[in-house]
Amino acid sequence: MKFEDLLLEIGGFGRFQILILFILCLPRINLPMHFLLHNFLAATPSHHCAIPYQEAFVNLTMEEVLLISIPQEPDGTFRSCEMFSQPQFHLLLNSSLQPENDSIVQHCQHGWVYDHSQFTSTISTQWDLVCEQRGLNQATATFFFIGVTMGAVVFGYLSDRFGRKAMLLLSLVCSVVFGMLSAASVSYSMLAITRTLTGVALSGVSLIVLPLGMEWVDVQHRTFSGILTSIFWSIGNMLLAMVAYLVREWHWLLVAVTGPCLLSIVCLWWVPESARWLIANGKVKQAHRHLLRCARMNGRKDFAVSPEVLRRMATDKKPGESYSYISLFRTPVLRKISLCSGAVWFGVAFSYYGMSMNLTGFGLNMYLSQFVFGAIEIPAKMVMYVLVNRAGRRQSQAWALILTGLCIGANIIIPKSFTSLRSVVAIMGKGFSEAAFTTVFLYTSELYPTVLRQNGMGYTSFVARLGGALAPLVFLLDEVWRSLPEVTYCGVAVCCGSVAFLLPETLNVRLPEGIEDIE
C-alpha cells in the first residue's frame, strides 16, 4: 500500500486539507513583503548638497541660493552629489552660463538635504547612503539574498532531517526576532547583519510551506493547492504596496511587514507534521494519530488502519541511513533530474529578476507600480492552473520559460520609438516569467521522493538564488554592447527552458516515496 491509497481512504482534499492550506498561505503572504521590501526600505529621494549659511545669502530665496551653489544638469535639475567651492553670483543674472571649469566643482562637503514629500525616512536618508556611498545602499538587498541563499541549503537539509513543521516554526520565530532587530538597528552594520539573518530565516518559510501542504493533498488536487499557495505571493505583493504607502518611516515599515509572522506562528498550532515524512522516518505512531484526525475532520469515520500497516509502507530508507545533498547525485535518474531541474531554476530566476529590474514605461508612481505588478501575476497563475493539468508540467514549464526569452529577444528588435508595443511585449514576458516561476515550484516538489524532497527543494532554491544574484550584474554588459544584457537574458531563458524537456512528466503521477520509486 502506498501513501496515495491512504489519502483516498481518509479524503485527499477535504476540510482538513483546506484548513492546512489556508493556514500555510498566511506566511506565504509575508514572503514578498520582505523579498521586495528593498524598493521602499532603501528608496533614495531626490537630494542635493547641504549649503552652509552665509551672510551674503541674507536677501536671496532658497531657489537662488541653490542656483549659485550647486551646478545644474543639462535638463536644468540640480546635481545630487556636487557643489561649487565658492558661490557663483553671476548665475543670478543668467543661469544658463554654467561654469565650464571643473576645478570650482567639488563633492558635497556638509551632507545632503533630502526631499521628504514621499518618504519620512529611509535607510538612504538615515545614513546618507548616496553618491559615493550608494553601493552600500544597494548592498542591503545583496546581503538579504545572500542570507536567503544560505537558508535554502540549511533549511532544505534540516527539514528532511528533523521534520517540516518544526523547521517551519523555527524559521518563523527567527524571522520575527531578526525582523524586529532590523527595525531597531542603530547602525548600518547592524542592519546589514540582521537583514542577512532575516533572509536565512525567511528562506526556510519559502522552502517548507509548499511541500508541507502538498504532502497532505491527493494527486487530483495537487495542482490546485500549488497554484493557490502561489497566488498568495501575489496578494503579498499588492499588500506591500498598500503597507508601504501608509507607513513612510523605515523603522515602522519593517515592524509592519514582520508583525504578521506572529499570526502565522499562532496558527501553525493547527497544522500537523507531514504524515509522509513521519512514515518515511519510522515515526509511525505520530503519523497514525494525524491520519485518524484527518479522517475524522473529513467525515471518514469508518477509516481504520493499524500502525503495523504503516510500518509496512516503509520506503527504501534503511534504519540508520541518512540522506544529504550528495544523495541527489548518487543514482543515475535522480542525478539527471537534479542537474536538469537546477538548470531550469537558474533560468527561471535569472530571467524573472532580469525582467523585473528592466520593466519600465508604465508612468505610474512606485506604489501603484508595485500594486499593478502584483495584480498582473494572478491572471498568469490562473492560466497556468489550466495548462499544467491539460498540457502537463513539462510542456508548461518549458514553453513558459522559452516564451519569456522570446519576449525579451523581441524587444531587442522592436525600435525604441514603438514604446506602447515594447511595453505590451515586456508585460507579456513578465506574465510568462511569473508563469514559469509558479510552475517550477509545483513541478520540483513532485520530481523528488519524500525522503529527499526538501533536500531537492533546498538545492534548486540555492541555484535559483545564484541566478537572482547574477541577474543585476548582467546590466553592466551594456558597456560592451548596448543589447548584450537582453541577448544574455534571452539566451539563458531559451536554453534553460529547452532543458525542461529532459525532465519526466509528473501529471497525475503518484508522489514518489523513496529513491526506488524514481529509479
UniProtKB/TrEMBL annotation:
Q: Where in the cell is it found?
A: Apical cell membrane; Basolateral cell membrane
Q: Which residues cross the membrane?
A: 139-159, 166-186, 192-212, 224-246, 252-271, 337-355, 367-387, 399-418
Q: Tell me the keywords, alphabetical order.
A: Cell membrane, Ion transport, Membrane, Transmembrane, Transmembrane helix, Transport
Gene Ontology biological process terms from the UniProt entry: monoatomic ion transport
Report domain Major facilitator superfamily (MFS) profile positions: 87-507
GO MF entry, a single one: prostaglandin transmembrane transporter activity
Gene Ontology CC: one annotated term: apical plasma membrane
* Record field: catalytic activity: 2'-deoxyguanosine(in) = 2'-deoxyguanosine(out); GMP(in) = GMP(out); 3',5'-cyclic GMP(in) = 3',5'-cyclic GMP(out); orotate(out) + L-glutamate(in) = orotate(in) + L-glutamate(out)
Q: State the membrane topology.
A: Multi-pass membrane protein
List the PANTHER family. Answer: SOLUTE CARRIER FAMILY 22 MEMBER
What family is this protein classified in? Belongs to the major facilitator (TC 2.A.1) superfamily. Organic cation transporter (TC 2.A.1.19) family.
Q: What is this protein called?
A: Solute carrier family 22 member 7
Q: What is the source species?
A: Phoenicopterus ruber ruber
Biological classification of the source: Eukaryota, Metazoa, Chordata, Craniata, Vertebrata
